[in-house]
Each structure stands twice: as C-alpha cells, then as structure tokens.
Amino acid sequence: MSARRGQPLTIQEIYAAVLRLVDEGGVENLSMRKLAAELDVNPMSLYHHVENKDALLRGACTAVALGLRLPPDDGTPWQEQLRALAHAYRSIALSHPALWSYVNAHPGLVEQEGGMWEVFNRVLAAAGVPAGELVRVRTVLYTFVSGLLTAETSGLLAGLDPDGDAETTFDAAVDLILDALGSRVT
Amino acid sequence: MSARRGQPLTIQEIYAAVLRLVDEGGVENLSMRKLAAELDVNPMSLYHHVENKDALLRGACTAVALGLRLPPDDGTPWQEQLRALAHAYRSIALSHPALWSYVNAHPGLVEQEGGMWEVFNRVLAAAGVPAGELVRVRTVLYTFVSGLLTAETSGLLAGLDPDGDAETTFDAAVDLILDALGSRVT
DNA sequence: ACCTGAACACCGTTCAAGT
DNA sequence: ACCTGAACACCGTTCAAGT
C-alpha cells in the first residue's frame, strides 16, 4: 500500500529533503533510510527515482549549482564582475555550507556549475589575461575563493575583523587578490 | 585467545594502519572492522586503545601534523620563511591527501598543528604586519594555501602549467600572494 | 591489563513480488 | 509505472565474560 498522501514523489521533493537533512546535520547525516522517513516513504521507493546514494548527492549538488546568479555580460569593469561572481558563489556556499564543503572536497562532482567557468573565462579575457594563461589564472583565483569559503563555512572568519563581519574580511581578501591580478595584467 | 603474533598493539601501530587505509581509499574507506582486520585483531580490541572512531581519526591527524617541518628562526627574509612554511605544509598535505582534505574540511580538529600558527605569527610580525591585523592576515594567507592544496590534491593543478608540474603552479601562486602582501606592508 | 563473542541498532542495496 | 518487504552484507558501539 502507499503510505504517502499525494502524488508519486518528485525528484525536486527528494532534493529538497536531502538539503534539509544535509543542512541540519552535514552530509554524514544523510542516509537513504532517514531520507525515506523524512519523505514518509519506504526506503526502497527512492531507488525508483535515483540510481544510488552517490548519484542522489551529485544530483542535489547540481540542482543547487543551477541556482548560481551569474553576473550579466554588460559593460561593467572586470574587477566588478569578478567581485559579483565571487559573491554569487559565496551566496550559494553559505546557503548550504555542508553541501558546499562536500562539493569543494570532491571537485568534478558537478560538471558545469551553472556555466560559472564560461563567465569566468569571459571576464578574465576582458581583463587582459592571455588565452594561454587563462585556465591557470582562473584556477588560482578559484582556489583562493574556495579557501576563503572553507574558512568562512567553518567559522574561522567570524569576528576576525574588529569593525565588521565575515563578509568584510571576505571582501578585503577578494580586493587583495584582485589588486594582485590587476598589477599583473596591466 | 590472542590471534595476534606479537606484543599488545601500540597506538602508533594503529595510526600507521589508519594512514594505510585512508591513503588508499579515503576516509570513507576506514572502518573499525576493516582496521581491525588490517591489524589482525578483534574489532573490539581497538576500543581498549581508542575512545571511538572520531577520536581515532583525530589522533591520526594530530600524529601526522606533528611531522610538520617548521622553518627555523634564523635571519632569513620573511618571504623566504613563508615560502618554506607553505612548502612544509604542502609536503604533509601531499603525503596524505585524503586525510588532509578531511582535516581541511574539519578545522579545529587538530588544535596545534605542530606549532605552525606560532611560527606563522613570528614571520608575519617580522614582515611588518601590525599586531592588530595579524590574525586576519594569517587566516587569509592560510586559506589561500588551503585552497591551492585542495585543488592540487584533487588533481586540478596537474598539467596546468605548460612548462612544469603542479609545484610550479603552486610556487607561482604563492609568489603572487607574497607580492600582494609585500605591497601592503611596505 | 588486555582481549573477545554475542548482541543491538543502524547502514546501502538487490530482488522478487505486489498494485 | 510505481511501490514494497524480506533479505544480505555491512557499519559503530556496549557489555558481560574470559585470560
């Protein structure tokens, strides 16, 4: 018999429940059986919508990544666009810290993070980074932001700036690296 | 009866087996039962030497951290000492990538990473960083290296530099951030 | 002091069976 | 098409018992 109240059980419904469990207790708090209980469903029903636990997590990560708000290709200066990209990425990371930490430790898990890399490429090209160095520069910049967010999601950035919050420190650090980049490309 | 060949089972022996398992299959490859099998011992015997699995992992991480080769306090320039510190840290991360990734995602797991923070403080003070900004600068620098190593341990840095290996990219990135720091303190 | 076996409450996943 | 129950091979950990 069907213990469920409504319609079949959608993948969105499943992802939402995954986020609830992971947000509240980390990735290690997610189990197929707990997830089924959260959805008021038999554990085995999940396997009709998802290949296995790994695929489920990958799917949830991709779903979150698609929510990335990429800066548009208007004429604004590259520094501003990079800042906007960094903040968009940070916003997603902070809304699901545990899941982001998991993705960060397993890169390649989500192939296209909402087209982030293409935008990154465009802005860096506009900044004057030669095509041959693009991937390297992009990777280094990304790792920098990734490191900052690792610190922030673990509370290492909290109360670090006497006059402000973690965002102040994040901004200052991004400015630092943008200055360094600027002095290289000009 | 004792299925073991020799003496009681030392904590060093246990940590060594933990490293073997984690190095070869990641932290998720470590289970108390597999570890016991690796040591040719009853699973329950482990609990006589270690409180539980979390404490075991924490202990193994601390043991590794104690192997950090800190740069001595000779008169060498601060840039060179920071580079040496970064390389010492990198060396440990690369020798146990999976364990390092775990520590990186769980900061505060190992309290004193072999006195790394004290050395960091000393060198930054020598570089002219005001005492009030020391922790913030240190944290930002650390997160930068942490991000680079996350990339390197996941293979993102491999083959990025046309003329060299991942170390070349690592060095170039460290130089970039040292330049940025230098232009702030002088 | 150190080790052990049985037991408990969990896991992910397969498979044959139900509607 | 979608769901389910029983089953299998795993987990971490407790506890009473052995030497």
TrEMBL record, chains A, B:
SUPFAM superfamilies: Homeodomain-like, Tetracyclin repressor-like, C-terminal domain. It comes from the Bacteria. The keyword Transcription applies. Coiled coil: none annotated. Residues 8-68 form the HTH tetR-type domain. InterPro entries: Homeodomain-like_sf (IPR009057), HTH-type_TetR-like_transc_reg (IPR050109), HTH_TetR (IPR001647), Repressor_TetR_C (IPR004111), Tet_transcr_reg_TetR-rel_C_sf (IPR036271). Keywords: DNA-binding, Transcription, Transcription regulation. It holds the Pfam family TetR_C_1. Residues 31-50 bind DNA. This is TetR/AcrR family transcriptional regulator. It comes from Streptosporangium algeriense. The lineage of its organism: Bacteria, Bacillati, Actinomycetota, Actinomycetes, Streptosporangiales.
